[in-house]
Amino acid sequence: MSGDDELGxxxxxxxxxxxxxxxxxxxxxxxxxxxLPLEGAAHPVEAQRLAAIMVLVVTFWVGEPVPVAVTALLxxxxxxxxxxxxxxAGKDAARVAFAQLGNPILLLFIGxxxxxxxxxxxxxxxxxxxxxxxxxxxxxxxRRMVIGLGVCAWALSMWVNNTATTALLIPIAxxxxxxxxxxxxPSRGLEAPCMLMIAFAATVGGxxxxxxxxxxxxxxxxxxxLAGARVPFVHWMALTLPLTVAMMICLAVLLTxxxxxxxxxxxxxxxxxxxxxxxxxxGEVVTAVAFGLAVGLWxxxxxxxxxxxxxxxxxxxxxLPEGAIAIVASSLLFLIPAAPGRPTLTWREAARIDWGTLLxxxxxxxxxxxxxxxxxVDVVGVGVVRSLGIESLWVLTFVAALMASGxxxxxxxxxxxxxxxxxxxEVARQAxxxxxxxxxxxxxxxxxxxxxxxxxxxxxLVYGTGRIPISFMIKxxxxxxxxxxxxxxxxxxxxxxxxxx
Length: 501
Fold this sequence. Notes:
The chain is mainly α. It has a two-stranded antiparallel ribbon. The relative contact order is 0.14. Helix 6 packs antiparallel against helix 13. Among the domains are: 102 residues, no CATH class; 78 residues, no CATH class.
């Protein structure tokens, strides 16, 4: 990003924060004292107080006068201080307010973060990328090179944070672009599609696994908490992996038409880079074993749920849930040394994981739980059903996907999921339809936001290289937003009967 762009973006962010700091408290007071129609709520007084808190939290999430993770913690704290927790008092109220910060789903994220960090520390992610790009299928032309980089981003971001995946692949792509230009300046007609492919594919790949991105875990948690519906790891992948494959095909069509040819042999460059990595090191092997153990047990846990009444399925659910699997597998990184006196992952390295996302996830789950307890989500759900007249499952699914992708253009995808998913689940319940398809569509849509540099961190990273005109990102991003929402809804409509729903 150029200096002028950075200054302009900084000024915009400061203005946005100042506006939120003024508007948020004003809206809080307005909702606190307004005569809201909350008689249908289980606890109308607490529901009104929570509604005022939610308005403040959402405004702060949009404007970011403080970090979004701090705002997430502020929500349940204000609920406790201002008496928005129904049916309990004293220490019990504090336990209810902050109970979701100990939700087992957070362990799934922590273990996944540890494994992803070890992959970065020991270069396993780079080795994977070079092995893919060295394949003949991805080195024969610039079009195939761009697709190959997209495949790397897609596959890595299933398990590694999409921001880290993008940051890893940007310098690799830069080297490939220089080689493609034969030592000269790369063509803008190749640079922009190449960089945009990395960012978009990294976001798409995160949809394919429960641990791929925070909204997935929020969606799964809210479904279990608010709808009593548990979606095992392997079932999530069976639904979303085909959707991401269709999205990758769409990206290949959208971003690789008319690319200029390469001046040299791209595959030879990738092979040379792979050779420079040398033989596998012990740290890579241990990380690969931990990763393989986690994925294998997650798959096994999901597969045995095909017969949920079996003793093995009950054992997995009671003794080795998915969060425990993540911790068991990632603990190997601390137990097995990569070199004498050095564990595969040190605590200093492990502490670099994104704790802010974990706090945001916990705080968001706490707010969702309080919306359920007060009955606020019931009132919102009834209001939406009446105003929109939604009765069809698939109309609701399409609306949920569009609302999620639209909101995620403006605020963080995790905040979007926290705000939207309880409402979508309750709207489905009030409409008398299965909440899973609209909730899954909304969860996937929350990871969208392809039009602007501020929509997702991967977008910001690739735009910051200075290789992508903003008009190119907006145009291609809008097209992919629309195409992605269509793929989600049509894909779920086709796949859903296979799950006996």
